[in-house]
Design goal:
The protein is of the alpha/beta class. The protein folds into two domains: 143 residues, Aspartate Aminotransferase, domain 1, CATH 3.90.1150; 257 residues, 3-Layer(aba) Sandwich (Aspartate Aminotransferase, domain 2). Helix content is 41%, strand content 14%. The strands form three sheets. The protein has an eight-stranded mixed β-sheet with strand order 2-9-8-7-6-3-4-5, with helices on both faces. Strands 10-11-14-13 form a four-stranded antiparallel β-sheet, with helices on one face. A two-stranded parallel sheet has the order 1-12. Strand 10 and strand 11 form a beta hairpin. Helix 12 runs parallel beside helix 14 and helix 13 packs across helix 14. The chain starts with 8 loop residues before the first helix and ends in a 14-residue tail after the last helix. Bound molecules: pyridoxal-5'-phosphate. The site of pyridoxal-5'-phosphate has 13 residues, from helix 6.
Amino acid sequence: MTVPLSRAAKSQRTTDSPISFYIQKAFENPEIVSFAAGLVDEDSLPVDPVRAAATELLSDPVAARAALQYGSTQGAPKLREQVLKLVCDADGAKPGELNLTPADVCITTGSQQLLYLLGEVLFDAGDIVITEAPSYFVYHSLLQSHGAKVLTVPMDDDGMRVDLLDALLERLRREGQLPRVKLVYTVDYFQNPTGLTLSVPRRKQLVDVVKKYSTAHRILILEDAAYRELRFTGSDLPSVKRFDPTNEFVVYTSTFSKPFAPGLKTGYALMPRDAMAPVLHLKGSHDFGSTNLAQHLLTRLIASGEYAKQAEVLRGVYKQKAEAMLAALDEHFADVPCARWTVPAGGFYVWLTLDGVDTGPDGPLVQAALDAGVMYVPGQYGHVPDEAGRVPKSECRLCYGVATPEQVTEGVRRLRKAAGAIGLARTGARAVVGA
Ligand SMILES: Cc1ncc(COP(=O)(O)O)c(C=O)c1O
């Protein structure tokens, strides 16, 4: 008999992502239209600009050696300057107005690494993190791994209900739990998973609320702006960071994965100085620097304007897919009274609610959808169970990132067929709750 491995508590709390199953299914059966994986559009990946930048870089021996050498833990200085300009330009602010310099920027191995490292810096087991309900599945897994306690605040069409965040923090203060509250996490642009965006008044209000309860220690806001550059309707909104002129309360993180190429796996963060130092110490232990070659390539691609061009191309690509999905939902679900869905202004996601239908992994719709040749992510993965262990079970995350517009249209048709197969009538839902 094999002698068992003795695993640390943290490892025992860390599980595979619940959506790996759905990603695997799609790989196994290419006929399935997958709305499950949050992957980017394949055809528009920037092969030519990256080839040109790589050729140029590698043709210059001095530049090539610099790129093929180790970099620094904090990231390539030029790229940090460019990131600062990118974010400040988007916010219509000078770095000085936000008390920011390139020393306040860190380049990471995707924004995911920052989410992890900041958690490592902040959370002891039992510490409290407040997220939107629902929120980014992978972040929830990460919080579980850290042993953090997750409390949630509902959303509406304007994003997180900041008034309810205020009420929650007030309750925690009364109960003497405020010392355990470390962080409020928001995916504030075209949220994964709902596609919803935090409104401008709530951005300011969010900083004000967090400041109000930061009496004995500072509660941080983690602003995950991963999809910000993929807006295809309306104008950009100022970041939450824009309302933090002293650079004290908001860690802003984003990524080159979504608006450019995830294969470069490069993200970044702007953060308060007393958060930066411990993050860098940990990052030093992890990798002492994200891949230098990718950073040097990105520096060139930003400087040449190719990065901005690509982001513009992608906005068009995702607009077309979003329109295909919304048109198909209108066609197939408009006369289903229990159905409603979000209308994103950017990003990859539509959140479909089918009141009364069990959309969960053990419910009938998942299997019926697979039988019909379409896949979605059960919305319950975006929620944390309440005290009684319950999670909402009537929601689906539909990602139009990777499917072509034609596949998007076909996928929604198949989803309607699947819903019909489990008895969802045009007059409403059959009672399949808890089935
Ligand atoms: C909301 C959100 N944050 C962060 C990430 C991490 O992306 P990356 O590590 O590629 O930057 C993702 C990826 O899907 C995401 O959806």
